[in-house]
Amino acid sequence: MALSRHFQKVNASMPELPEVETVRRGLQPAMEGAKIVKAEARRKDLRFPFQKDFIARLEGQTVTGLGRRAKYLMADLTSGDVLLMHLGMSGSFRVHKEDAGATPGQFHHPRSDDRAHDHVVFHMSSGAAIVFNDPRRFGYMKIIARNAIEDEPLLKGLGPEPLGNEFDAAMLARSCHNKKTSLKAALLDQRVVAGLGNIYVCEALFRAHLSPRRLAATLATKKAEPTDHAKRLVDAIHAVLNQAIKAGGSSISDHRLTNGDLGYFQHSFQVYDREGETCRSKGCEGIVKRFVQNGRSTFWCPKCQK
């Protein structure tokens, strides 16, 4: 099976954009502008084998920038290479400051003491050790040349960033024009919009009062212009993602910030994982329902989401 298709099959259970963005922000102070003095790969593979020259292409390189594309972290190096990193299902980064002797941060739950899952370590000139821990080994790292980034199979075909300037009601309408799939399926399609996953799609649809079963094509007129539904949905996507990033993401399973703390956006869920509870929309007395859609749990209020 091709690498990109193999990766897409497991992508559904992985951290979503807000979780990856909060990790990026936690790593940025320790990585950006610092040199990778030493790199360790303590096994031959994660989800996929490391490249044979993985360590050689990292050591001695300075990280000039740490960005994010969809659910990927991307570290630009002075060599012109980019270190592409994906958290997988259970992967997390830990920033260990040598002068502190311990991982900073208050813990809601203690992290695993089993260092057998510390698979990759970057020793930075900033005095920090960046440790990638991944018990399930669904994470992934790959070095690619910056000038070949557009042809990288894992990135090729990704849609616009939902918080980027390109993503607006007009673009969403054009992408969904004449689509025969459900609205939820369209939003989970990384070619339509990159980085959204099951949790935040459920939350955005709820806030926009749109049914996950609604046809995606109803976001556009016959001329592919955005309807009010499209405008409302884009506003809801922006709002829920920004709120989740501010809260540090959602910790319903393995997600942790780089200091070990859990994200707490799960306490702000309006509909996700609230089956049987009264709808939180003002004036609505509906009951949140759950059904399986495209193999994923969908939570919604049939009374106010049309």
Q: What's the CATH architecture of the largest domain? A: Alpha-Beta Barrel
Task: Give the CA-CA distance, first to last residue.
Answer: 40 Å
Main sheet properties: 4 strands, antiparallel
Radius of gyration equals 20 Å
Number of strands: 10
Supply the CATH class of the largest domain: Alpha Beta
Helical coverage, percent range: 10-25%
The domain tally reads 2
Strand content bin: 15-25%
Average pLDDT, rounded to a whole number, is: 85
Number of helices: 6
Instruction: Kindly report the name of the CATH homologous superfamily of the largest domain.
Output: MutM-like, N-terminal
What's the short story on this structure?
This protein is 22% helix and 20% strand. By secondary structure, the protein is of the alpha+beta class.
List keywords for this structure.
306 residues; alpha+beta; N-terminal domain of MutM-like DNA repair proteins; Helicase, Ruva Protein, domain 3; 2 domains; 4-stranded antiparallel sheet; 10 strands; 20% strand; disordered N terminus
